[in-house]
Amino acid sequence: MLTPRQKTPDLSVETVAHGSFDLSSEGSEKFTLVVFYRGIHCPICANYLKELERLMPEFAQRGVNVIALSGDTQEKAAQMVEASGANKLRIGYGVSLEKAREWGLYTSEGIGKTSNGIEEPAIFAEPGLFLVRPDQTLYFASIQTMPFTRPSFKEMLGALDFVIAKDYPGRGEYTGAV
Fold this sequence. Notes:
alpha+beta, 7-stranded mixed beta sheet, two-stranded antiparallel sheet, 4 helices
């Protein structure tokens, strides 16, 4: 289990149109927002990434770098760029199931075609969203078993304003006896 205030696993991927991404050398001012999405087969993901693309300037104003990534191939990730219209958003691809598990993501078996007519992969990672500090320690995590009801990027922006102004610490870090 990932723990706030502790180092996250390493994460390096290629992106569709923005070169290589390596979390350990990302160099964000405040945070890096790492958004794992299910893949091109997920119409909810396309809408989610469209919203993230729209709000990227607001994240940048707060010193937050952004990347979205999945286990899709380069070709499928390029299809997601097209489907979501997310041309400015860094979209990474090729995240292994082992790496997804390191990040605590749930995995699912494909159950056929989704509502957009695309076949789910045999096994794929479910969504997760992480705010990571520049020293690669975890600040916030939201990990899901389903594609539905994801964290709101707009609400996250408001929370970031509070967090940054108050230097609010990451929570959920206690791992001792209960």
